[in-house]
Amino acid sequence: MAQSNYELLRFEQIGGSFRVAATGENNCSLSSYNRRDFYKISLILSGGGELFYANRNIKFDQPALIFTNPMVPYSWADNPEINVTGYFCVFTESFLLEGGRMESLKDSSLFKPGGDPLYLLNPAQTEYLKGIFMRMREEADSEYIYKHELIRNQVQLIIHEAIKMEPAVAYAAPKNAASRITQLFLTLLERQFPVDPPQFTLQFKKAGEYADQLAVHVNHLNAAVQEITGKSTTTHINERILAEAKSLLKHTDMSVADIAYSLGFEYASYFNSFFRKHAGITPLAARKEVKI
Question: 177-291 belongs to which CATH class?
Fold first, then answer.
């Protein structure tokens, strides 16, 4: 199965916060792309395929507009018989909020967990949206001093066009639902790491928080993870936090308090108790062992 970032063949970047690309052009690298930062809007013009998003999947074979956010894992499978063509843009929330007119993307109907990310397009909508993406690419190449604001407006036009549409609703539960939900959980868990304070700190520590992001009931998530892995959701979370804590203690000079903060603990004493419970020693003792 192809990953969600199907081949990026060209991109333009504005201040590290916006990129727009199309298929069928020169190869490029997205080495600085960080899925924890970027939202994505994809315009599929031809080819279709299948989108796997949270605990749902949808097949389509007509033009579509797809909205994905950095906190809900998703993947994309192309139609192997037809080449996929289209455009997409990726951007940070701050890029849009600079205009002062957008609600938080995390709460918007298009990007929030449990929302409907895919919109099927008629010919008129397809041409209209294609024109917007083409103009964004042209502006990204231009020297126009206000191109950031202009591109922001164009992204907002896409968003408002989608809000007027009815989302595709023909979602199906995958046959291997427990396996897929488990993989999505593990992907989202791993996506929290490595922490990189102060910009990136652990956002989700509880099973319920992961369930909210995946738009499933926490009991459903717990049952799926237990069935597939033989471990509870909480065990996976605690083991990954502990592994990150050990790595930070071993490979950085961060204080225990800073490590506690980066891993989502309100107080260092809470982190000390967690570490002692799961590692059998205190964080300071673990750091001393490394230095011996």
Answer: mainly alpha
Residues lower than pLDDT 70 in the chain: 1-16, 24-36, 54-55, 99-107, 109, 112-115, 166-175, 197-199, 290-292
pLDDT in tens, 210-226: 998 888 899 999 999 99
| Rounded Cα distance, 1 and 198, in Å | 35
Strand partners, 78: 49
* Dist CA 99 CA 134 (whole Å): 21
Q: Which of 247, 250, 245, 254 is nearest to 273 (CA)?
A: 245
In CATH, what is the architecture of 12-163? Answer: Sandwich (2.60)
Distance (Å, whole) CA 37 – CA 168: 26
Rounded CA separation 125/75 (Å): 25
Contacts of 198 (CB under 8 A, 6+ apart): none
Instruction: State pTM to two decimals.
Output: 0.66
Q: Where are the domains of the chain?
A: 12-163, 177-291
